[in-house]
Each structure stands twice: as C-alpha cells, then as structure tokens.
From TrEMBL:
SUPFAM superfamilies for this protein: ARM repeat
Protein's UniProt name: Uncharacterized protein
Organism, scientific name: Rhodopirellula bahusiensis
InterPro entries according to UniProt: ARM-like, ARM-type_fold
Domain of life where this protein originates: Bacteria
Length: 458
C-alpha cells in the first residue's frame, strides 16, 4: 500500500501562506524570492567582525538588491510605543513575545529595545526583519504591518535562518472560521507555519535536498522535510515563484477556471476570488455545487463563504440547488462546516424544517461555535417550534453555570423574540438557582423587544 505524502499544515493554512507569498512576490519581484538562502554563520560572522549593525544592514540590502541608504539604527526604551505606525519588528505585535525592536517607516529607522550583543540572535533577527520591512514599505506592500506576512517575506527572500531558531509564538489563537484570513490576521509565524514556509523556500528554488536545512532546529526540520517531500511529489502550491506568473489581477473567467485546478491550494484561493455580476450560468453553478460537496474541508468551507459573498451582492445566485447543497452540510462530519453552513443558510433565509431541527440540536453541542451557529440561525427565524425553548433553557443554564457569558446576549435575544413574557420564564427557570437570575434579567433588559409567535406543529 502506498501512502500519499501530506503537508505539515492543513490546506486552509498552507493556502493562506502561499497566497501571502504570491502577494509579496508580485509586490517586490519574484526574483527576490528566488535568492540564495543565507546561512546563519554568514551573518553572525559578519557582525562579529566589527560589531557594526550598519554593516549587517548593508549586507542585507545588497542581498535583496535594495537601497538601504538612509536606514538608521537607534536605541529605544524596552517596549517603547511606536510614534510612526511602526511595522511588525517589535514588541507592539500581538503574541507571547516579539522581536527586540521595530521598524519605523516614517523616518526609516530601526528602534532597538536592547543591544545586539546582549542577545545576538534576537538582535540580528530584528535587523533583518526591519530591513525586509523597509523593502516592503518602500514598495507599498499592503501587509507590511502584519507580523506573519513580514516573517514570510524574511523566509521567502532567503533571510530566515536566524529567525528559524527563535520561537515567537507558542500557539496561535485560532478563530473557529478558518476562512476569515483578513478579519483575523495572525501574529508571527508559529513553528508549523515556519516549517512550511521553509519547505516552500526550498521547493521554490528547486532544491530537493537543501544543505541549509541541516541548520534548522529539530522541531522545524522534520515537518519542513515532510512538506518538502509533499511539494516535490504533488506540486500542490498556488505560489510558484519560478513561473513568475502574476495571478492576483487575473480576470474572473481565469479565477473560475483555476477553481477547477488539480491543486487544492489553487482551488481554495481561486474560490475566495470568485464573483458574479448576476445569476450564475450552469457551468458556474455546477462548479460551486461540486466544491460544496468536496471531500476537502478547506475547499468546502471556502465554497460556502463564496456562496455567501456572491449571494449577498446578487441574491439570485442563491438558487434552490445551491441552497439544497448548503442544507446537506449542516450535519457534516466536520464541526466547522456544520457551523458555517448553518450561519450562511440563516443569512440567506434558506432554513427549512429539518435545518431548524438541526439548529436546535446544536444548542446542546459542546463546541461553542456549533452552539453559536444554532443560536444565530434560530434567532433569525420568524417562528420556531415549541420544543426549541426547552433546548434553549438547557443551553442557558449550562453557560451560566459555567460562568461563560460570551453567548448570553444572543440567548437573551432568542427569548425576547420567542416569548411574550421572558422575565416570568426566567423567574421560573432559575427558581432553584436564584444566583443566576439577576444576570439573566440584566441581559434581557439590554435586548430590544421583538416578540415572535411560536409555531405549533412545526
């Protein structure tokens, strides 16, 4: 039996990284993302020679083919606030920690929070990050303020070997909806993302056995080699620097064509760019239905997001066949697919009786995003079956006992919509736990009254 190689990241995460690298390459030039990888020893030896940060900056500038004249290094108090919208080199970035300084685009200065000699690896990584920030800033790269994207530019341009040895993010806070790349940008690359970025760096340079990989920390080396093996075997990447192909400004017809590509990453990114000026033609509708039913979760999720995006602009896109496809996903094996399809169905007004019943069962679910999706969908209904209220009662009692108040406003909204006298209902519900009643009543008072009759026999 032969096993298909897999990347060390799920398709959603690897697609995000490949998309960001494509953005960087189209901004600063593909040639810069094909430059040789600079070894750790080269930069350390350069600094040790004269201990002059300007020499390091000059070396990085020469490597990048970037004019670094005018970049100044300054000392700052630790964690000093940025006065000029500082880029993501330093402690202002979200995450457990940051680099030892930051880049200030207003005057092209590198503000160091500590001397390089006190921690050479951290100090030199900060200089490299700042010069790459300057490159991105001078080329008007839109994501220059985002730590993860600058990290990707550092690794992509062959300057990541020192950064590879520094752990800046133990674990990313992950939003349940993995399609929301732009709404929830990430801090610096975590270990797994850094490993994949290095694999792309090797594969993009057509280097099947990079010598520099021997200097990677052990926790990066194994997943990096796993992903490099995957890339060499499948060529499954949206970002292909040797092709030097501009993709992000292509036409809608080309995006629709790319959505049928064999590469999962290319499909995900293409689906995120799909649009339509009116009702989908038969071929487009068939493709979107096919992507909704994909065995690849990332493709399915982004197809749901694409349908929501297009239907919000052109309601005619939400045909009955597409709505049926969404309904079939509300009991999908993947919790995120269930939650997202339920939310989108509710927004499109596509809930039928079976979907309402499924939404009610979500109120009992352990994953919070499933509970949210069920609540969200039910709150948008003009009528609900009577049996939904006991399920909501159990949900409300559970979250209050757990002191988990994240969903209580939405729960109170549901009661306000469904009951004529929710206060009396609360008094009865919490008669054996009066300590929760004040919280319930206070929340209820914040919600405007919008009663909706319970449907009977639904």
């Amino acid at each position: 039996m032969f096993f298909q190689p897999k990347a060390n990241l799920p398709d959603s995460a690897k697609s995000r990284i490949e998309f960001c690298l494509q953005q960087i390459a189209e901004c600063v030039g593909f040639e810069r993302l094909l430059l040789p990888v600079v070894g750790r020893k080269t930069i350390f030896d350069l600094y040790e020679g004269e201990r002059n940060p300007q020499h390091v900056i000059a070396f990085i500038g020469k490597h990048l083919g970037h004019d670094v004249n005018g970049i100044q290094v300054r000392n700052a108090l630790p964690q000093a606030p940025s006065a000029g919208g500082g880029c993501c080199g330093g402690g202002s970035c979200d995450g457990p920690s940051g680099l030892a300084g930051r880049y200030e685009p207003a005057d092209r200065s590198i503000m160091l929070d500590q001397t390089i000699d006190s921690d050479p690896a951290m100090g030199l990584a900060t200089l490299i990050n700042a010069v790459v920030c300057d490159l991105l800033s001078q080329n008007n790269f839109a994501g220059v303020h985002l730590p993860e994207q600058v990290d990707l530019a550092v690794v992509g341009t062959g300057l990541g070997m020192i950064r590879n040895s520094i752990s800046l993010v133990a674990k990313h806070p992950v939003h349940w909806d993995s399609t929301q790349w732009d709404v929830y940008p990430r801090p610096f690359l975590d270990g797994q993302s850094l490993a994949y970025a290095n694999a792309i760096a090797a594969w993009g340079r057509d280097d099947a056995a990079p010598e520099w990989s021997n200097d990677l920390p052990s926790d990066l080396k194994r997943p990096m080699k796993r992903s490099l093996k995957f890339l060499l075997k499948t060529n499954d990447s949206f970002f292909r620097p040797r092709a030097k192909q501009v993709l992000l400004t292509q036409s809608q017809s080309e995006w629709w064509k790319l959505a049928a590509d064999s590469s999962a990453s290319s499909q995900v990114i293409a689906i995120r760019h799909l649009n339509s000026n009116g009702k989908l033609d038969d071929q487009q509708a068939s493709l979107l239905i096919d992507k909704l039913g994909s065995a690849n979760v990332a493709i399915t999720l982004n197809a749901i997001a694409a349908m929501e995006r297009m239907a919000s602009q052109q309601p005619a896109i939400a045909s009955e066949s597409l709505v049926r496809g969404l309904r079939s996903l509300t009991d999908h094996r993947d919790d995120e697919v269930c939650a997202k399809s339920m939310c989108v169905l509710a927004r499109l007004g596509g809930l039928d009786d079976a979907a309402v019943e499924t939404a009610a069962t979500m109120l009992e679910a352990h994953p919070k995003h499933l509970t949210f999706a069920g609540l969200y969908a039910l709150c948008m209904q003009d009528s609900v079956p009577e049996e939904v209220v006991p399920a909501l009662d159990r949900c409300f009692v559970r979250v209050l006992r757990a002191c988990d108040y994240e969903l209580i406003d939405l729960i109170a909204t549901a009661y306000r919509r469904w009951l004529y006298d929710p206060q009396s209902h609360f008094e009865k519900l919490f008669q054996n736990s009066p300590e929760h009643l004040p919280i319930a009543l206070e929340t209820l008072q914040k919600v405007p009254q919008q009663p909706v009759l319970l449907s009977r026999g639904a």
